[in-house]
Design brief:
This protein is of the alpha/beta class. 40% of the residues lie in helices and 21% in strands.
Length: 452
């Protein structure tokens, strides 16, 4: 991971950590880099989510690209997976998505994808970061060499058409709830489900620039659970701010997370001979019960580090067509190279319709070990994790569960938080160990701050 671009791009508080000036310099670099690389005027695709700051960053990046002699194609408000798809489909040199995904509206981010729609490679990121930290002034385009901006809202319609082409069945007769997190999917998701014949009910579809992910979407699933129960819906799907995640709610209002989605889709694809090598890729955050449950169905499950770029890399290594994270990033490699929340919801619908079963029945065979997942907000996550008392607390927890469980503590790649996972056979013990780790981290940070 780099200094600015970490697990999922350059992310932080808008105009504090990620400023308009930095965004302009990102644009300047990309416009010059790809124009030089391609020996012609660069063609760069640019999308954004519904945050108020996304407009500021969009104009800054676009100005930078044009000033360096590149052309910018503006998708306006769209999803991250749509940028990935259109870069590949329409032969752009790279794609830029302005979004902080599941974070609050105060944050924003810049995600970069290459001409194959995949996360940008480390060489590009390294050179970009060197430029951001330098005093270098890149050559400015002049006269007819200055780039232009092109309204490319038609690209969203192409992506919509692509999603519709992937559906193998009609959704007529199904009552479906969608929680669009007041984010990128707010109009796209409903258009897809309406076109496929579903009776669609939507919440989280009134973005105002400040309410993205606020009490809604995949990170606040309770809103959709209540909505599904109250309206007696057949199923519900919640997306995050840029719609690369999907979490499901079954007809009873129970949550089906990314692990459950992998379980349902892996078994469905395997039954149709479409799961190459009968192999799935999950992450170290997935419940161990998922691995055992898939094994009973003759499906191998490999685990990668956290992050969809690592999932995708492991999928390529294993030749797997399906992979994802418990958070809801699911990759269907036949159709996409990154997580796509709307695509995931379509595939879950297909599994239910083709197997003539509600989601609760399809997830019934998935067993789970007791698991506690916590997030602790801290000032400096890497420093806190390096403190002796925190290291000791983690070591003691690991020793306690050496033969009957596991402990996984890491710095978040997207927020100033420390993630804690505790998993063992005894639910009460699992909770106690997680509580102790949270207490140790909070108290350790307090001593650290006092000493500073």
């Amino acid at each position: 991971m780099g200094k600015y671009f970490v697990t999922d791009g350059f992310r932080g508080r808008a105009n504090e950590v990620l400023t308009a000036e930095q965004a302009f310099r990102v644009g300047r670099f990309l416009g010059r880099y790809f124009s030089d690389l391609m020996q012609r005027r660069a063609r760069i695709l640019l999308g954004k989510d519904t945050r108020r700051s996304s407009y500021m960053l969009e104009y800054s990046i676009a100005a930078g690209i044009a000033a360096s002699g590149g052309d910018v194609f503006l998708l306006h408000v769209t999803t991250t997976p749509s940028v990935s798809y259109l870069v590949r489909a329409d032969a752009f040199d790279c794609g830029v998505m302005i979004s902080a995904s599941h974070n609050g509206f105060e944050d924003n981010g810049i995600k970069l994808v290459n001409s194959d729609g995949e996360k940008a490679d480390e060489e590009l990121i390294s050179r970009l970061e060197e430029y951001l930290d330098s005093e270098e002034i890149l050559p400015r385009a002049t006269g007819a060499e200055i780039g232009c901006t092109v309204d490319y809202v038609s690209g969203r319609n192409r992506y919509l058409g692509y999603l519709l082409s992937l559906s193998a069945c009609s959704f007529r007769g199904w009552r479906v709830g969608l929680d669009c997190a007041n984010g990128s999917a707010w109009s796209l998701a409903k258009a897809v489900f309406d076109a496929l014949g579903a009776q669609t009910f939507v919440i989280g579809a009134q973005p105002d620039g400040t309410n993205i992910n606020r009490g809604c979407g995949s990170t606040h699933i309770g809103a959709l659970q209540k909505f599904v129960r109250e309206n007696r819906l057949d199923v519900g799907f919640a997306f995050d701010g840029d719609a690369d995640r999907c979490i499901c709610v079954d007809e009873r209002g129970e949550v089906a997370d990314g692990d459950a989605i992998l379980y349902v889709c892996a078994r469905y694809l395997s039954s149709r001979g479409e799961l190459e090598g009968d192999t799935v890729v999950a992450t170290v955050m997935s419940n161990r019960g998922l691995l055992r449950s898939l094994k009973k169905s003759g499906i191998e499950c490999r685990c990668s580090p956290v992050g969809d770029r690592f999932v995708y890399a492991e999928m390529l290594s294993a030749g797997s067509m399906l992979g994802g994270e418990s958070s809801g990033h699911i990759i269907f490699r036949k159709h996409a190279v990154t997580g796509d929340g709307i695509l995931t919801s379509l595939k879950v619908m297909e599994a239910m319709i083709e197997q003539k079963a509600p989601l609760s029945v399809l997830t019934a065979g998935l067993t789970r070990d007791p698991q506690e997942i916590r997030s602790v907000s801290v000032g400096d996550k890497n420093r806190v994790l390096s403190l002796p008392q925190v290291k000791e607390a983690i070591f003691m927890a690991e020793e306690c569960l050496r033969d009957c469980g596991r402990v996984f503590v890491r710095a978040s790649g997207t927020e100033p938080k420390i993630r804690i996972l505790v998993e063992c056979e005894d639910g009460a013990e699992c909770t106690q160990i997680a509580d102790r780790l949270v207490e140790k981290i909070i108290s350790a940070e307090g001593r650290s701050c006092a000493e500073s």
